[in-house]
């Protein structure tokens, strides 16, 4: 998944028939602070996002995985609207507890 910001909309009156009724958004990739870092791209929008909103988008075959985009000619899809980003959590104090065992050992298998 990639973080992006919706910067506009795209209207296409003549298109692949499977895309009839679909909404297209203009997006630019964004960094962890929401600052724009990429070129403008067109994405299929199944979330109803609007200009200025921070979104998550997927590319390639992943763009056709959501139920609303299956069988569509899509290479870039918006799949979520971001409510909040929390970057740079403060360091956590060491609790002094023993490190967690691997899943294999926890399940009783030797590693």
From TrEMBL:
<feature type="compositionally biased region" description="Basic residues">
    <location>
        <begin position="100"/>
        <end position="111"/>
    </location>
</feature>
<dbReference type="Pfam" id="PF03319">
    <property type="entry name" value="EutN_CcmL"/>
</dbReference>
<dbReference type="InterPro" id="IPR004992">
    <property type="entry name" value="EutN_CcmL"/>
</dbReference>
<dbReference type="GO" id="GO:0031470">
    <property type="term" value="C:carboxysome"/>
</dbReference>
<keyword id="KW-1282">Carboxysome</keyword>
<protein>
    <submittedName>
        <fullName>EutN/CcmL family microcompartment protein</fullName>
    </submittedName>
</protein>
<keyword id="KW-1283">Bacterial microcompartment</keyword>
<feature type="region of interest" description="Disordered">
    <location>
        <begin position="90"/>
        <end position="111"/>
    </location>
</feature>
<dbReference type="InterPro" id="IPR036677">
    <property type="entry name" value="EutN_CcmL_sf"/>
</dbReference>
């Amino acid at each position: 998944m990639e973080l992006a910001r919706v910067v506009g909309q795209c209207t296409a009156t003549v298109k692949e028939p499977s895309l009839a009724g679909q909404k297209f958004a203009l997006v630019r990739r964004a960094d962890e602070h929401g600052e724009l870092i990429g070129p403008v791209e067109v994405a299929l929008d199944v979330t109803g996002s609007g200009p200025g909103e921070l979104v998550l988008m997927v590319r390639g075959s992943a763009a056709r995985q959501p139920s609303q985009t299956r069988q569509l000619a899509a290479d870039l899809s918006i799949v979520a609207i971001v409510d909040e980003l929390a970057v740079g959590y403060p360091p956590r104090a060491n609790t002094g507890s023993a490190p967690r065992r691997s899943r294999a050992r926890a399940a009783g298998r030797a590693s």
